[in-house]
Amino acid sequence: MSKPKVFSTHPLFEAPRKLLDEHFAVDYWDHPERPPRNELLKRVADKDALICLLTEKINDELLTAAPKLRIVANVAVGFDNVDVAACTQRKVVVSNTPGVLDETTADFAWLLLMAVARRVLEGDQLVRSGKWTGWNLDQLCGADVWGKTLGLLGLGRIGRAVARRSRGFGMRVIYHDTVRLPAEVEKELHAEFMERDAVLAQADFVSLHVPLFPETRHLMSAPQFAKMKPTAFLINASRGPVVDEAALVAALDARRIAGAALDVFENEPKVHPGLVGRSNVILAPHMASASIETRTRMAAMAAENVIALFAGRRPPNAVNPEALEAK
Ligand code: GLV
Questions:
Q1: Chain-wide mean pLDDT for the chain?
Q2: Could you list the active site residues?
Q3: How far does Cα 16 stand from its chain's mean position?
Q4: Closest ligand 1 atom, residue 79 Cα
Q5: Would you say the pTM of this structure is higher than 0.90?
Q6: How far apart (Å, rounded) are the C-alpha atoms in residues 77 and 262?
Q7: Which domains does the chain have, with CATH numbers?
Q8: CA distance 25 to 7
Q9: Is 278 exposed, middle or buried (0-12, 13-18, 19+ CB in 10 A)?
């Protein structure tokens, strides 16, 4: 029997690639840039499975172009690039990569927080410029991190990993989420639940850890920035459209907040021009989960979901298991 056909929009890493090649006839997109849309539509035409990145829009157009498709394995935990309802309707399983990137992403959220508070990129630039004249009492004074209040919007797996790290800095942790966590989890994390406006008003650092849904689009806009302390910083390692970038720029212009550190943007790879060139803003190219170990695990997890489906098992990370029900 011939092997099922897979299109992978990325060459992946050696170990997951080996795993896939054992089971499938895999067509890899082997170029450094992302595949153009017309190429993607062409390459999926005869495929049984698709392994893709969050840069690919999986919608009706793509599903129509890929009539044999049985699974879309997104190499990311977020799957806002996938029209899950359209996939379910066509009995196409969608899988993601939850769990394996929580700690790595939390590390990076902390890196952003500390970098913007303590102005380390400005320091790096000063040293490299050759203009540093030596120690000075008021040079590059930032904001303390230790002992401050960390406000988390979203306390899922990644938010909790961020909260755990705050213990070493002696911080108070306050949070809001649509569902309040069980008391024992709050206790373990030393996290206090509050209404969102109270988190915004009390936090010295507001860090976003919600998925992108219609309800979380522009969760942070002008009214929310207006509630923050003028000394507070915004950290975003979730999804770009959670922040209204124009409103963020206006808040920074008006010194409504002290600064921002962003790993994600509303219209990636475009960045609002009002953010570039500000020394109190840190811009990172959507790299929070980018460690070799984690990205390899994410790719392996996508491969395992495809393998499971074609072995007649339930893909362990199916986000729409109802797609598995018989037609
Ligand atoms: C990255 O942003 C992911 O969703 O995994």
A1: 98
A2: 239, 268, 286
A3: 21
A4: 4
A5: yes
A6: 18
A7: 5-100+292-325 (3.40.50.720), 102-283 (3.40.50.720)
A8: 9
A9: middle
Residue 192: φ, ψ to 5°? -100, 130
The DSSP symbol for 145 reads: -
Question: Could you say which DSSP state residue 327 is in?
Answer: -
Segment 33-90, tens digit of pLDDT? 999 999 999 999 999 999 999 999 999 999 999 999 999 999 999 999 999 999 999 9
25 token code pair? 């006839």
Work out the angle at residue 39's Cα, subtended by the Cα atoms of residues 265 and 310, and round it to the nearest 5 degrees: 90
Which two three-digit tokens encode residue 164? 């755990």
Who lines ligand 1 at CB under 6 A? 54, 76-78, 101, 289
**DSSP code string of 46-76:** T-SEEEE-TTS-BSHHHHHH-TT--EEEESS
226 CB neighbour count, 10 Å cutoff: 13
Give the type of residue at 123. Answer: G
